[in-house]
Specification:
With 214 residues, this protein is mostly helical. The protein has helices at 8-20, 31-35, 38-45, 50-73, 85-88, 110-118, 128-132, 146-150, 154-157, 162-171, 177-181, 197-204, 209-213; strands at 79-80, 95-97, 100-102, 138-139. The longest helix has 24 residues, at 50-73.
Length: 214
C-alpha cells in the first residue's frame, strides 16, 4: 500500500472482482508490520537474495490475511499461486528505485535465460515455505503445463507481448481486455510507477542485499 492511495494491483483486482462477480480478499500491511516478517521469510524461504525476500514478504502478508479469513470463515483453503509462469516465459526484468537497479539477471538471450531460470536460477521456498508457516497448503498450477510451456520456441520469448498474446489464446473472452492491456507490475512493487511497495520499504529501511545476506 502506498500512503497516497491504493496500488495499481489493488485497483485492477477490485475492478476484476466486480466484473467476474468474485469475492475479493485484500491485505493491507503497515511497513513496520511487514518488516517484522523479514526473519521469518529469510528462514522459511531459505534465501537472502532481495528478489526472493521481497516476494516472500508479499506472500507472508497474503498468507497471514488468508489464514485470518480461513479462521473467521471456518473453512479450509487451498492456495493457488502464479509462480513458475515467469520462469517458463523468461519474464523477468530489473527494476529501478532511487537511481539504483535491483533484480538484475544475466545478460543472455531469452531462450538461454529460460533454461537457466527453469533449472533454478532464482529458486527458493518463497511460496511453499512461507505459506506453510501459516499452515496453508499450496499448489503451483503452472508446473502441470511445464512441457507445453517449454515447447514454445525461443523466438516467441523475444516478443514483448508474449504473455499477453499467450493469455489471450488460452483465456480468450473469459477475461476483460483491460487485463490483457495493462502493463506488467511486479508484486514487490505493486505499482507501475515503481515508487512504492515492498522493494521501496526494504531499501528505505536499510535492508539492501548486503544487509539481508548478513
Amino acid at each position: 500500500r502506498r500512503e497516497r492511495g491504493s496500488s495499481d494491483d489493488r485497483l485492477v483486482a477490485e475492478r476484476l472482482a466486480v466484473d467476474l462477480d468474485l469475492r475479493l480478499l485484500t491485505a493491507t500491511v503497515d511497513p513496520e508490520a511487514l518488516l517484522e516478517k523479514v526473519d521469518m521469510v529469510l528462514t522459511e524461504a531459505v534465501d537472502w537474495r532481495d528478489f526472493n525476500v521481497h516476494a516472500g514478504l508479499v506472500n507472508a502478508a497474503l498468507a497471514e490475511r488468508i489464514a485470518e479469513d480461513d479462521l473467521e470463515q471456518g473453512r479450509s483453503v487451498l492456495v493457488l499461486t502464479g509462480d513458475l509462469a515467469n520462469e517458463f516465459l523468461a519474464d523477468y526484468q530489473p527494476e529501478r528505485y532511487r537511481g539504483e537497479t535491483y533484480y538484475k539477471l544475466p545478460r543472455l538471450d531469452p531462450g538461454t535465460l529460460r533454461t537457466h531460470l527453469v533449472r533454478g536460477l532464482d529458486t527458493c521456498h518463497r511460496e511453499i515455505g512461507v505459506f506453510s508457516a501459516w499452515k496453508l497448503p499450496v499448489v503451483q498450477p503452472y508446473a502441470v503445463a511445464v512441457d507445453a510451456y517449454l515447447a514454445l520456441p525461443a523466438s516467441w520469448l523475444a516478443r514483448a507481448d508474449r504473455k499477453q498474446q499467450l493469455s489471450q489464446v488460452i483465456f480468450g473472452e473469459l477475461l476483460p481486455d483491460y487485463v490483457y492491456m495493462r502493463k506488467k507490475v511486479r508484486a514487490q512493487l505493486g505499482s507501475a510507477s515503481g515508487d512504492g511497495g515492498v522493494l521501496a520499504i526494504c531499501v528505505d529501511s536499510g535492508l539492501d542485499s548486503a544487509a539481508l545476506r548478513r
